[in-house]
Fold this protein.
Amino acid sequence: MSAFLRCLCLTVLTGLLFATTTSHAQNFTPYDLSGDWLCERGAIPCKIEQNGTVLRFSHAQGASDGRIIDASHVEGWGDVATISLNGDRLTWRRGDVWVRR
């Protein structure tokens, strides 16, 4: 195979990989996370406000802007949480767990 054809094949494959990765990352319907939540550690009432993928987390100690990263993760408080399959539980990497009230 000539150098030109190898380069062309690599370019096409890279483009297909990028298109697939990009469309997968953006092609999801975010959960509706807005509403009242409870931080299980300390039984602290929390609230999430949502506008599309933009989030606002708040509780008695403060507030944080955040966002939905993908279909199963949110970012806020300088941390990342995994969204449960039914969307009623956020498990933060630092150990906190928020459950929908």
